[in-house]
Design brief:
Helix content of chain B: 25-40%
Strand content of chain B: 15-25%
Radius of gyration of chain A: 18 Å
Oligomer: heterodimer
Distance between the termini of chain A: 30 Å
Number of helices of chain A: 11
Bound molecules: thiamine diphosphate, iron/sulfur cluster
Order of helices and strands of chain A: HEHEHEHHEHEHEHHEEHH
Largest sheet of chain A: 8 strands, mixed
Structural class of chain A: alpha/beta
Strand order of the largest sheet of chain B: 9-11-10-13-14-15
Shape of chain A: globular
Chain lengths: 292, 388
């Protein structure tokens, strides 16, 4: 077993309101610690807003604007511009949103901010569904997953937000996972040094939403990475792809077995999912190989 | 409102360019803007000023009015002075965030050009776009002409920052937005004096690590509305003060409610926006013909100056409300508001609610003169009356 070295800076307080065992809280801790004090946050309605807690408490030691679901990136743009007008150009403006707030209702505002290359660090906690409203599908939900609004399994694929953002040619896009905390810290650190729009996707296996055991969020996330379901990589300037975990070591079965949302999947369904993952992986590594 | 005589600080400006001049003089820090006819000349003029280094706000041009308002709120929450502008569909798209801005107590100033909302599509002056936002917690002011728009947009920053509530200033599409008149421009220095920078209490990123807008319990939310009510209660006085100080500086007096030949009036027209100009002329003509007519211009619509209105209307024999808007199933919004405001007044006027100019149809001086004759002795009806 790998020992994770991690020094907590105390930017994320205990007493937050995440489900016990939630990997989003763990990720939030790493992100906030890495972002540091000179930061202003925007949080969209989502688990992250709930995790940060109700007024007058806040689990974050940075000020946070609780914004609206569809306009997180626009709010962050407003803060960045206002701080700039006040001579505080170096302050990090950190956006924390869910996949619904990123892939669906907030896509328009995010695309616009990306097109303007606003100097913001946008984190998408990708739990592949609307968890704050009880677990319905978002366009990030992968095919065949059962959710509150896809009781027979989703019939369409997960939207490829990374390629959509890459097409905007923003300077930095990355994926990371709570199973790889040093990778997460390194990516936040790197993003902080870059001016312009940075978007980082964090895989969050949601305990109630996916039907994952309370002690298995990190393990599930690790299996997601190791099986190539959630590859860890970076895209710079929309064209330079780098795999940060270069190998796939497992089939997807172990990952699926951790979750109840695939419980009625048969062998054919599993094979289809495996084929989808294989296809995505080979396209991705091809890009990384071609450019890197 | 009569345009002042020309002098060297005058320019021929249309209403929208007068707004842009006012905004330039008010020096906001951030201005998120999205184009919509007939607001667009405000946006273009500000961008023009910026590219000539005459205006150094952070201009942000996002993909929609919804995002423009989101950016405005967030920027204002850091303590920045913020301006935006819109019209009709744009204002309606912002609706969710209008509530948000007021709740977050962000003193944003927004200029709205009153235009008919779809469907069917139209581009003409009608105030239902802004009037249907009356419950969002925004202060609403209505301007009559380009000079009024310049004066009011600058005053709006004073009022907003005095009470920590957002202000929407409105003028009518084309009649004001695109009509040209000589506009007197105050100096940069005098406006800087008039609008000192204040340090606001609620500031995101002021080092205190306070968050803004997190979920709260019922009682605390209730408290936020009570606090808003307290702020609203100060608006009429703040608007009066803003107008008096403006008069000391420019010689032009503005007030929440303005009267024209209203003393001893037998017939008082009550209206808002560009219709005031037409009504003013009709009043002159009626007076020439021996009819004691007058005008009450409602400049501050939200909060409605209820006590002042009750005083102004008690004892007036006949009041004719001219509404360039229609709330379906009810009638003219100003008419309904006045009916409510007059409840229980001793000696109230016979109040006539006329739907005049809905959809931007023209209402002439002669039309208004005729209305005075038609309704001066008519019995009051609770129903709105469509003017042909
Ligand atoms: C305009 C609007 N529509 C609906 C909602 C209700 N709502 C709040 S959170 C949420 C789901 C968010 O899902 P996601 O962004 O994936 O975040 P998660 O809860 O999964 O962390 C919804 C639909 C809202 N706040 N605003
Ligand atoms: S619902 Fe899921 S993502 Fe949200 S706090 Fe609970 S475990 Fe975490």
């Amino acid at each position: 077993m790998e020992k994770i070295e991690y020094k907590d800076e105390g930017k994320f307080c205990s007493g937050h309101v995440a489900c016990a065992g939630c990997a989003e809280a763990l990720s939030m801790r790493v992100i906030l610690n890495e972002v540091g004090d000179d930061a202003v946050g925007v949080v969209a309605p989502s688990c992250s807003a709930v995790i940060l807690g109700g007024h007058p408490m806040s689990a974050a030691k940075i000020p946070v604007l609780h914004g609206t679901l569809e306009s997180a990136a626009a709010s962050a743009s407003g803060i960045k511009r206002a701080l700039k007008a006040q001579g505080r150009d170096d302050t990090t403006v950190l956006c924390l949103a869910g996949d619904g707030g990123t892939y669906d209702i907030g896509l328009q505002a995010l695309s616009s901010a990306a097109e303007r290359n606003e100097d913001i660090l946008y984190i998408c906690f990708d739990n592949e569904g609307y968890m704050n409203t009880g677990g319905q599908k978002s366009s990030s939900t992968p095919s065949k997953a059962v959710t509150g609004s896809t009781p027979l399994g989703k019939t369409t694929r997960k939207k490829n937000m990374i390629e959509i953002l890459a097409a905007h040619r923003i300077p930095y896009i990355a994926t990371t996972s709570p199973s790889h905390l040093s990778d997460m810290a390194a990516k936040i650190k790197k993003a902080k040094t870059i001016r312009g729009t940075k978007v980082i996707f964090v895989l969050i296996p949601c305990l109630p939403g996916w039907g994952v055991a309370d002690n298995a969020a990190v393990k599930t996330a690790r299996l997601g990475v190791e099986s190539g379901v959630f590859p860890l990589f970076e895209v710079e300037n929309g064209v330079d792809y780098t795999m940060t975990v270069a190998q796939r070591t497992k089939p997807i079965d172990g990952y699926l077995a951790q979750q109840k949302r695939y419980r009625s999947l048969d062998d054919a369904g599993r094979a289809e999912l495996q084929a989808e993952v294989d296809d995505t992986w080979s396209r991705l590594t091809e890009r990384a190989g071609q450019t890197g | 409102m009569n345009a002042p005589a020309f002098n060297d600080t005058m320019q021929l400006l249309n209403g929208n360019h007068a707004v842009a001049w006012g905004v330039r003089l008010a020096t906001p820090d951030v201005a998120p803007l999205y184009p919509i006819t007939p607001q667009t000349p405000i946006l273009e003029k500000l961008i023009d000023f910026q590219s000539s280094n005459l205006f150094d706000a952070e201009l942000l041009t996002p993909e929609s009015e919804h995002s423009a308002m989101a950016a405005a709120i967030a920027a204002s929450a850091t303590g920045a002075r913020v301006f935006t502008a819109t019209s009709s569909q744009g204002l309606l798209l912002m609706h969710e965030l209008l509530h948000f801005a007021a709740g977050a107590r962000t003193p944003i100033v927004m200029f709205n050009v009153n235009r008919t909302p779809a469907s069917p599509w139209g581009f003409w002056p009608d105030q239902i776009d802004s009037l249907s936002q009356r419950d969002t917690g925004w202060i609403q002011l209505y301007s009559e002409c380009p000079q009024d728009s310049l004066d009011t947009v600058i005053q709006a920053f004073r009022i907003a920052e005095a009470v920590n509530l957002p202000v929407m200033v409105n003028h009518d599409a084309f009649y004001v937005s695109h009509s040209v008149e000589p506009v007197s421009l105050p100096s940069k220095e005098s406006v800087a004096n008039y609008l000192p920078r204040t340090k606001r209490d609620i500031q995101l990123g002021d080092g205190s690590n306070r968050s803004l807008g997190a979920p709260i319990d019922q009682a605390s939310w209730n408290l936020t509305r009570r606090e808003m009510a307290k702020a609203m209660a100060q608006v009429e006085t703040a608007t009066e003060q803003a107008g008096r100080d403006w008069s000391d500086m420019t010689g032009r007096l503005t007030a929440p409610l303005e009267y024209y030949r209203a003393e001893d009036a037998e017939i008082l027209f009550v209206t808002m926006g560009s219709m005031c100009g037409t009504a003013r002329q009709a009043v002159d003509r009626l007076r020439e013909n021996g009819v004691a007519a007058g005008l009450l211009k409602v400049r501050l619509f939200r909060p409605l100056p209820i006590e002042t209105l009750r005083d102004a209307l008690a004892g007036v024999p006949c009041a004719i409300v001219l509404d360039r808007n229609y709330s379906p199933g009810m009638g003219g919004v100003l008419h309904q508001e006045l009916q409510a405001a007059l409840f229980g007044v001793q000696n109230p006027p016979r109040l006539h609610g006329l739907l005049a100019g809905v959809g931007g149809v023209n209402v002439s001086v002669e039309d208004i003169e005729k209305l005075a004759h038609d309704y001066r002795n008519a019995a009051q009806s609770m129903q709105p009356i469509w003017v042909d």
